[in-house]
Design brief:
The protein is globular, with a radius of gyration of 19 Å. By secondary structure, it is mainly α. It has helices at about 5-30, 30-35, 40-95, 120-140, 140-165, 185-205, 210-230, 235-255, 270-275, and strands spanning about 100-105, 110, 115, 170. The longest helix is centred in the N-terminal third of the chain and has 55 residues, at about 40-95.
Length: about 280
């Protein structure tokens, strides 16, 4: 059974590679596209099918590994993260809070209430769970929560330019200074990520998931928008994404490490249990 999450992850990796190769080759050589796919039917379908497949298989991989390793806690985490992130996305697409005004196009599949694609909250779980495992392997308490949140924000620094400016999976109501993204979105990502990581700390303070698996999950999901940014010469995004990871790691492990920053009143809820289990 342990091989199944890796199999799902391998399928996601294949989709990412195919997406980057297809986009890189055919957008630079449209004459080849005319020869291979004259009416661009497959190329047009790929913008929908590959995006849905990427989120679906990534989510299945992480959910499967989490359920195998953390069982009931992982099930609670999946349910809570899905519902909280869905609520946040519904607020965003309806009222512009906390991400700013935006709307999803039809490229990401069926939507909740015709606003939020079903797989978007699963994607939140995919990355927040992976970020939480990685953060807990190098830190604890608030430092781990902040590191996990920072990893989510670093991903978004690449995701938004790639998925709203290059491929139009969502459209902003107001144009911002960062590749069209309003700065409020970054704040919204940070707040939503922080809430999710705090909830994961409460539900699964010491997750048993593999750090190697989580690193592959993060790397594969990071690679897709990073590749799109490189192919479109979005050099600022391609630079600040990796740099923000390095900076977050240094801050959360060196400046906010054990004994240097703590929950008001002492340990965070669940820290004592986490330390005993480890």
């Amino acid at each position: 059974m342990n091989f199944i999450p890796w199999l799902f992850l391998a399928v996601q990796a294949a989709i990412v590679i195919a997406s980057l190769l297809g986009y890189g080759i055919f957008t630079s050589r449209p004459d080849l596209l005319v020869q291979v796919d004259p009416q661009a039917r497959f190329f047009a379908w790929a913008f929908h099918g590959f995006a849905v497949g990427n989120m679906l298989f990534g989510g299945l991989a992480v959910a499967g590994e989490a359920l195998l390793k953390d069982k009931q806690k992982a099930l609670w985490a999946l349910a809570v993260v899905y519902l909280v992130s869905l609520s946040s996305e519904l607020m965003g697409t309806t009222y512009g809070i906390p991400f700013g005004a935006y709307s999803y196009t039809s490229l990401l599949g069926i939507k909740w209430f015709d606003r939020v694609p079903l797989l978007i909250p699963l994607s939140w779980f995919t990355m927040s769970w992976a970020c939480w495992i990685l953060a807990r392997r190098v830190s604890s308490g608030l430092a781990a929560v902040f590191l996990g949140t920072a990893l989510l924000v670093a991903w978004d620094l690449l995701l938004d330019p790639a998925m709203s400016r290059v491929t139009s999976y969502w459209v902003w109501g107001d144009q911002g200074a960062y590749y069209g993204m309003p700065w409020m979105n970054l704040l919204g990502w940070g707040v939503t990520g922080l809430v999710l990581l705090l909830l994961l700390h409460r539900i699964a303070p010491a997750p048993h998931g593999s750090a190697r698996f989580a690193a592959w999950v993060y790397g594969i999901n990071f690679a897709l928008p990073f590749g799109f940014c490189l192919l479109n010469r979005y050099w600022l995004a391609a630079l600040v994404g990796p740099l923000s990871i390095a900076l977050a790691y240094l801050i959360c492990t060196k400046l906010l490490g054990p004994g240097k920053f703590s929950w008001p009143g002492g340990e965070m809820p669940g820290d004592a249990l986490s330390q005993r289990r480890e």
